[in-house]
Design goal:
Layout lengths: L2 E4 L2 E4 L8 H7 L18 E4 L2 E4 L12 E3 L1 H4 L6 H8 L9 H19 L6 H7 L10 H12 L15 H6 L13 E8 L5 E7 L1 H4 L4 E6 L6 E2 L5 E7 L2 H10 L1 E6 L6 H5 L12 H5 L16 H10 L2 H8 L3 E2 L38 E4 L2
Parallel strand pairs: 1-5
Antiparallel strand pairs: 1-2, 3-4, 3-5, 6-10, 6-13, 7-9, 7-11, 8-10, 12-13
Helix pairs in contact: 3-4, 3-6, 4-6
Bound molecules: FE2/S2 (inorganic) cluster (FES) (2 copies).
One FE2/S2 (inorganic) cluster binds next to loops.
Amino acid sequence: MTTTTINGRPQALPDDPDALMIDVIRDGGLTGTKLVCGSGVCGACTVLLDGAPVVSCLLPAHAAGGKSLTTIEGICANGLHPVQKAFMAHDALQCGFCTPGFVVEATAFHDRWRATKGTATPSREEIAAALSGHLCRCGAYEGIFRAVAEVCAGRFDGNDPVPSRLEARDKVTGVARYTVDISHSGQFEGVILRAHLAHAKITGLDLAPARAIAGVAAAVSLLGEDNMVRFVGAPIAAVAARDRRTALKAIAAIRFRSEELPAVIGLDAARRDDAPVVFEKKGPQTRRQCVRGRRRCSGVVEGQCAWTLGAVLAEGETGERLASGGARGTQPASGGRDLPRLHAAARVPRAACRSGEVRRRSAHRARLHAGRS
Ligand code: FES
Ligand code: FES
């Protein structure tokens, strides 16, 4: 059996060649490392592998064999790292969901910087380059940049600062728990299959292969009666299964065909009279989706899925349909298939846990958990 070391403790690694390090870490209770995009774009899952920052959502577990891993919890094993103090002092966080990834990366940068440059202050460009693999939905960048500049200059080598927000310490150390960090007994995990096309009619959706997989509790369509998708990331189907791997396997097993329709990028293109029509009928609901003041609904704005997805999911489609398929959700949804774009809304799962009921829908690519209770 292969083993690795996580925060100084030996950890057996699964034999499964497809197992990912993020799952080993989080399943072992170290939930400070966050899974958001699952595709190496947002940086929330960053850990140190033999001292070098890596995204654990793309790291095969077996690749960590014989190596030493440090998560956000390990960064402060012997007290707060100066980077954590600086983040607290500069209020370099809001919701804190991206913070562990930023802190881990900034710690590696700080330690390298101090070893080679002493207490010189890095430029904004140097900090930006070091943190370029991280996204913060809340836009806490100004505080983050100030914190990294000052900590590299040695201004947080001393005592712990007084943070400007009460929960800052929990957030910079990975102790803060979010809905994705809560696991109920018998909980299912759900994944949503989302559209990779900006405008298309989905034909021949076949959920049977997903339902046939052992451990799958439900596979349901999320399409409306017209079977259309109108933005990249629009929900097509959802799966609830005993664990994430099974749910992802089931998502991959779903078969469908799509007839791609014209789409446009940008508001100017969407305002043109000959822009593709999104909704055939006018009405209060369709008008909300349109550019205000236009006489008809036209134009698919590719790349605007944060705004669009929020509007659609807020109307309750995902939760209600998933529940009607037999699963009961506690958390929000996830992009299960290739989604080429990433935007700020990818950072935070907006959800609340409540047994047996989906309470809110998610931002783009958050995850869905569903319980048997
Ligand atoms: S980079 Fe790993 S979750 Fe986003
Ligand atoms: S503080 Fe960065 S995503 Fe909220």
